Amino acid sequence: MAIIYKIFRLAEYTDFVRSGETLGAPVDIADGYIHFSTVEQVEVTASKHFAGEDGLKLLGVDSEALGDDLRWEVSRGGALFPHLYRVLRAEDVSFVHDLPLEDGRHRFEGLTV
Predict the structure, then answer these.
(1) CATH superfamily of 3-102
(2) pTM score, whole prediction
């Protein structure tokens, strides 16, 4: 199992839980796919796109279970990033953690990443 990560703001996560599926955050909807990060990418993603934001949720998803709807595409710095070209369903999510903000940085220590 290869885990990939999605960070949601609390309102986005709450909507996801309520409906059982999501097309992602506004940036995902605009781009036409749901952005994910690998374990090597997720901390930079948090600092670049969610700097100083509290109340975030870190979702872990088994990339292999997403099948052909997950594509690895070149993005930031030429790295391959996982992009999901369908809705994310509640049953796709392996785990959810709060992503605490301490001293202005998101703390990943102790989380399953």
Answers:
(1) Protein of unknown function DUF952 (3.20.170.20)
(2) 0.91
